[in-house]
Amino acid sequence: DPTPAPAPVPSTSPAESDLVRAARGLPVSRTPVWFMRQAGRSLPEYRSLRAGTVMLDACQDPDMVTEITLQPVRRHGVDAAILFSDIVLPLVVAGMDVEIKPGIGPVIDKPVRSVADVDALPALEPEALGFLETAVRQLVAELGATPLIGFAGAPFTLATYLIEGGPSKEHARTKAFMYAEPEAWSRLLDKLAVSAAIFLRAQVDAGAVAVQLFDSWAGVLSAADYAERVLPHSRAVFDGLGERDVPRIHFGVGTGELLPLIGDAGADVVGVDWRIPLDEAARRVGPNRSLQGNLDPAVLLADRATVDREVRRVVEQGRTARGHIFNLGHGVLPDTDPGALTHVAELVHELTTR
Ligand code: CP3
């Protein structure tokens, strides 16, 4: 066999990319931009590749994960890739009967409703994540200088799906369980923190250079309940990274009142939705953390002049933060014109190039 050609040496390493530098509050060449849910239904190339494959099967196929993760990077010129996967994948790999129903989200047949249910949940074995390691290694090789963000679902947000049995608005059963069964609650969130940490470590050890912990639904909690009953478990996920020196992004929706606490859980970067302007968010999280966000994803459905005005506003307000990673305030809506996303990435670069 001929010796394989050496891999091209990228001009910059992903670990020194603008994304990682902004996350650490270091100077950048321009504001890095990526979009939550940048891979997915807004892209025709995604819809055709995914046709006929169940979401959770696609997430466990390294070649499909690699291709879907790369699609938005090629198309939009964003400054980071985020692994194509899902927050419930560690639960599925552990053997829980979670499904993702198209247009609905994660559903589970037998929801967790008792102490016995919590104790019966199977644990995630790191050895079961070989497909993930393969996908991340392949991706990192293809991405060159572009950083790969690994991610996991935070214990609270995962608990909402397990307890409700599917998506919900109020998360009333989840909160009722939290209040009525504080010990079982704590055991459940401990278990979820352990599996989230295993999932993150697998991604970082295979080459992801930043991580995002999604606590999408934490905004339904009061600050006091969040601080006492949720934050310690989210912190345990970050602590599970040990000495791995990758920036930690921590995001939830409707978390205006929780922003300082979301930072305290161990974040280098606090993700902000569109409800609070970034200058106010910067005051709330303090000078030691960077911000990510926060263009309203619905703005992308409006006319170009509106998009431009809102992008400029977010960029200006982001200048008050220690560091700013431009993003949406939540995921890309499926009806979004992909051209609008490409335009936003270009405009952010144009407005911020030093
Ligand atoms: O591009 C990326 O952002 C990476 C991939 C990614 C997905 N899910 C792919 C996906 C990420 C980071 C997630 C995280 C995720 N999954 C979260 C946290 C982020 C957030 O939006 O707050 C949550 C709450 C979930 C649970 C989940 N999975 C939901 C609510 C849905 C949508 C259901 C639907 O069909 O509307 C999913 C399915 C899902 N995850 C899709 C994708 C691309 C759609 C599946 C499809 O294309 O058929």
From TrEMBL:
Sorted alphabetically, which CDD domains does this protein's record hold? URO-D
Q: Name one GO molecular function term.
A: uroporphyrinogen decarboxylase activity
A Pfam match is URO-D
- Name all Uroporphyrinogen decarboxylase (URO-D) domain ranges: 32-41, 149-165
Q: Where is the composition biased (Pro residues)?
A: 1-11
- Site (Transition state stabilizer): residue numbering on this chain: 86
Q: Which reaction does it catalyse?
A: uroporphyrinogen III + 4 H(+) = coproporphyrinogen III + 4 CO2
Assembly mode:
Homodimer.
Q: Which family does it belong to?
A: Belongs to the uroporphyrinogen decarboxylase family.
Protein name as it appears in the record = Uroporphyrinogen decarboxylase
Gene source species: Blastococcus aurantiacus
